[in-house]
Design brief:
Blueprint: E1 18-23, H1 27-38, E2 43-49, H2 52-61, E3 66-70, H3 78-86, E4 93-98, H4 103-111, E5 116-119, H5 124-135, H6 144-154, H7 163-169, H8 174-184, H9 189-196, H10 200-214, H11 219-228
Parallel strand pairs: 1-2, 1-3, 3-4, 4-5
InterPro entries: CheY-like_superfamily, NreC/VraR/RcsB-like_REC, Sig_transdc_resp-reg_C-effctor, Sig_transdc_resp-reg_receiver, Tscrpt_reg_LuxR_C, WalR-like
Modified residues (4-aspartylphosphate): 70
Keywords: DNA-binding, Phosphoprotein, Transcription, Transcription regulation
Length: 236
């Protein structure tokens, strides 16, 4: 696949743009995403691939920070590619691109290590915000459309798979459970701080402890656990 002229194989240095990989079998979709992303001074498209197999090959040689991964692709689908990619050491963060008709598959991708998901018809500003959010180490769960999609997805989960995570919840304090519930409802750290009448720094500390105790890679993994265990119910 193609790399921009002069693309380097190393990670970004201080102040360097966030390096993004586009993985989608539709060239016009990639072209549209590239135009939007490359219009931003802090972002750049470093790798493009037309399927999951090609993406895994290219990303073995070219370091990127965030991957936008389509689900339905020939040769190797986005679900399998996401699982293999996130299993690598120093893996980039993955945002799965999807539509509502792929619900159970997208949830599987999230549980395999993706840091969020985005509807393919999302406004450009939402896509840009998602890339920046994931690169900061957070996860894409706050937009209302994403929250509704998460609630829609969890309905498909087999109940027996939640047992290990139920045990993990036992290690949370009452306050940490409260924070996790608010996270699962799409509340930002600032909003949680206002809800609980505490400093935002305190919320960040709670979130960090929640992730550590649950063994969650990031915020969205913790939120999926909250739904899987029944701590939060879809639509509640």
């Amino acid at each position: 696949m193609t790399l921009p002229d002069g693309a380097a194989t190393g990670g970004p240095g201080p102040g360097a743009p966030v390096r993004v990989a586009l993985v989608d079998d539709q060239q016009l979709v990639r072209a549209g995403f590239r135009m939007v992303i490359d219009s931003q001074p802090d972002l750049e498209v470093a790798v493009e691939a037309g399927d999951g197999a090609q993406a895994l090959r290219l990303l073995g040689d070219h370091r990127v920070d965030v991957v936008l991964m389509d689900v339905r692709m020939p040769n190797l689908d986005g679900l399998t590619a996401t699982a293999r990619l996130t299993a690598r050491a120093d893996a980039p963060r993955v945002i799965v691109l999807t539509t509502f008709d792929l619900d159970e598959y997208v949830l599987e991708a999230i549980r395999s290590g993706a840091s969020g998901f985005l509807l393919k018809d999302a406004p450009p500003e939402e896509m840009l915000a998602a890339i920046r959010t994931v690169h900061r180490g957070d996860a894409v769960i706050a937009p209302s459309s994403t929250r509704r999609l998460l609630e829609h997805l969890v309905v498909a989960l087999p109940a027996e798979e939640s047992a290990p995570q139920v045990d993990a919840l036992g290690g949370l304090t009452d306050r940490e459970r409260e924070v996790l519930v608010l996270m699962a409802r799409g509340r930002s750290n600032t909003e949680i701080a206002g809800d609980l009448f505490v400093a935002e720094a305190t919320v960040k500390t709670h979130v960090g402890r929640i992730l550590a105790k649950l063994g969650a890679r990031d915020r969205v993994q913790a939120v999926v656990t909250a739904y899987e265990t029944g701590l939060v119910r879809p639509g509640a």
